[in-house]
Amino acid sequence: MDxxxxxxxxxxxxxxxQAIYEKGLSMHLFKFLLLFIFFPLSVFxxxxxxxxxxxxxxxxxxxxxxxxxxxxxxxxxxxxxxxxGKTGIAHALEHMMFKGTKSYxxxxxxEIIAAAGGRENAFTGADYTCYFQQLEKSQxxxxxxxxxxxxxxxxxxxxxxxxxxxxxxxxxxxRTDDRPTSKVNELMQSLAFVSHPYGRPIVGxxxxxxxxxxxxxxxxxxxWYAPNNAxxxxxxxxxxxxxxxxxxxxxxxxxxxxxxGRKPQIEARxxxxxxxxxxxxxxLGYIQMGYKxxxxxxxxxxxxxxxxxxxxLASILSNSSTSRLNRNLVNTSGVAVSASAGYAMLxxxxxxxxxxxxxxSEGINDSEIEAALKDEIAKIVNDGVTNDELNRVKTGxxxxxxxxxxxxxxQGMLIGQLETMGxxxxxxxxxxxxxxxxxxxQIQNVAAKYLIDDRLTVVTLDPQTIDxxxxxxxxxxxx
Length: 479
What we know:
- By secondary structure, this protein is α+β, with helices and mostly antiparallel strands.
- The chain has 17 helices and 11 strands.
- The termini are close together.
C-alpha cells in the first residue's frame, strides 16, 4: 500500500443539522463545533517522547476515549533513498516484512494480529516506510513484540522473494500501467524531477522489478532497518510510561547499526516549460500541470509565509465544490469535466510541486484547458482572493485539522510523518496559527513568484481507442 491512510469519525446529519447548514453555517465549521462540544480535551493532549540507548525514538499520544491503541513503526527509508537500477526496492522490502522471521513462518504475522481482533498493514512513500497495527489496548504488547522481532530477525529467502516480486509487479500493473491518469502522473514526476529522486516511481520501474533479487532486499534491510533509523509511534488508550517500558523491553535489546550517509540530492535548475504527451486508451483527455515550489524548511530558519500561502491557495482553488476551479471551469464555462489542484507542503527532500489536474470536456483540446487553468492563476496574481474565500478556507482548514486529530490513527500518522521527514511533531500546534496569518497579498505574491512557465511541467493524455476486449493486467494486493 503506497498511499496515506486517514480514518475519520462519522457524523449523522438530521433535519436540524441540515437547517443549520442552509442558514449559512459551513459544514466544516459545524463539525468543528461538534468536536469541541462532545470530545474531551485529551484529544489534544501533549506528545510524550523518549529515546532508547540504541537510538530508537518512542512517541506516545494518550487518548483514553475508547479502549483502542494504534502502534506504528516508521523507518526513515523510502524511494528517495533508492539508486538507479533498484527502484521499487523500498516497497518490495515492505512486502517481504510479512514473509517470515526466525520465529514466525510467512504470513503468520498477519494471522496473529487478525486472531487478536486487530488490523494491520503497511505503506511505502517517497520519504518513509510505515508498518501499523490497530488493536484493543490489551494487545499492544503483542504488536510491539512482533515488530521488534521483524526489525532484527527477518528471513528473506530467494523462494519467497521470487513469489512476492511477482505480486509487486502485478501491483504496478494494477495501480499504474492499467490507469492512464496514473501513467500521466508517473511521467509528470520523471519529467519535472530530472536529477532528484522524487522523479522515480515509488513502486519502481518495471524493468528494475524484473531484474531485482532477494539479495537487493536483504541489502536494503541491512542498510536501513535499524532501531536508530526508526520511530515507534503509539496513540490511544495507554499510559506513556507503560509504553516506554514495553518498548525498552523489546526494542531496547536490538543493537544500533551504522546508517550510511545520505548525499545531498539537488534538482537541476529548470529554465523553461517541459512538455510531454502520453498516448493511452481512454474516453477523455487529461492534463496535469506541475510548478516546482519549495517545501517547508525543516529547521524553520527561513521565512515560512510563502509555504502557508501556497497551502491556502491550493484550498481556495480546490477544497470544495464551490472552489474556484470547480466553479469556473466545470460549472460556469464547462471547459472541464473535473478540475483540481494540490500541494504537499511537507517533504523530506525539500522540494514539492504545486499541481493542477483537469479532465477537459468533449471538444476541448489540450491548449484550451491549459489556457483556462493559467487564466485562473492570472486572476489570482492580478486580483488576489476575496475575504470570503480566505475566511471559508481558514475555517475549513481549522475544522479539518481538528477533525483529523480526532482519529487515533490519524494522530499517529501526523506525528510519524512529521518526525520521520525531519520535522517536529510540535509543528501541528503552529499550523493553524500560521494559516490564520495568510493574507490575499501573500497569495498574490506566491502565485506570481512560483506559478510561472520557467517552473512548469505539463503532461497531457492523448486518448486512444479503447479495446473492448482488453482485460486488466494487474491485481490489487494485501500488503
